[in-house]
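Hi everyone, sorry if this is the wrong subforum. Our group has a chain we'd like a structural model of before ordering constructs, and none of us has done structure prediction before. Sequence below.
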Amino acid sequence: MNDRLLQKNVTELLDHDDQEASVENKTGGKFNARLPYEYVDLLTRVAILEGCSKTDVFKRALHAYSRGFRKVLYPRTP
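Answer:
Right subforum, don't worry. Here is the predicted structure as tokens:
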């Protein structure tokens, strides 16, 4: 990622952070994604192995992926 694109992305993240801070009623939402067969198969297999839903697998994976970005993703959190 070049510096110009990185700066643009950081600006967008800060804008999102400002907007999110003003939201009073924070509720979840539905997420749909078109995935190649291999990803759907992988998601299904992990869900079966873990004994949970595909949604839970996705949440766990996203949580694990974002762990390394925590301070960057939430720049205004002390």
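For your construct planning: Residues 34-78 form one domain. Residues 44 and 66 are 22 Å apart (CA to CA).
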